[in-house]
Design goal:
The protein has 133 residues and is α+β, with helices and mostly antiparallel strands. It has 3 helices and 8 strands. The model has no long low-confidence stretch (mean pLDDT 95).
Amino acid sequence: MPIKIDHIAVAVTDMDTALSFWRDALGLKFGGIENVLAEEAEVAFLETENAHIELVRPTTEDSGIARHIARKGAGMHHICLAVDDINAAMQHIAAAGFELINETPRVRANGTRYAFVHPKSTGGVLVELYQPA
């Protein structure tokens, strides 16, 4: 099961302030902002040479990202690993005794499939599995 880092997500409360650092000060290539309705979040996409940075801002007060910020503050949210077959990866992880947040993959508008592994079973790190469209 080949795995590579796809992106690192950073929880933010103010997208303009966050972009002033990540895009403007660091000079990362800005790929736009997407409203991800299923996650109740706005996501800005930035590119590095070998992975992406996603800035994630909640669009509702009770979304998962809003609850994360309320508990832990803004900052590192999750690491995303790209896999060739998300169903096989999820089955392998579950069979090894690790807790998945999603029982089945969610699908983004562009066809990308994703699911999360619960941080309580990974040593405190929220891990996203990602199968690009």
